[in-house]
Amino acid sequence: MRDLSQPLVQRSGGMKKWSFIAMHAAVAAAFIFLLQRFGLNASLESASLWALTFAVCAAGLAYKQSNR
CA 14, CA 67: separation in Å to the nearest integer? Predict the structure, then answer.
């Protein structure tokens, strides 16, 4: 009976992993966008580009950390 419940635990763990990565990327993007746009008075294009860059980097770091 224990073997039947094992895949369910792995599935929910995988879902938590990807939601953690997405949340980490979204928070990093929002933070850098707000900092660039309103804190440093950058243009919308520049702030968006920095937000996208930081989101990709944050997602990569979160993915690497979740695999440890």
Answer: 11
Number of domains in the chain: 1
Q: What are phi and psi of 26, to 5 degrees?
A: -65, -40
The percent helix, strand, coil of the chain (3-state, each to 5) is 90, 0, 10
pTM over 0.90: no
Give tens-digit pLDDT for 12-53. 666 789 999 999 999 999 999 999 999 999 999 999 999 999
What is the residue range of 40's domain? 2-66
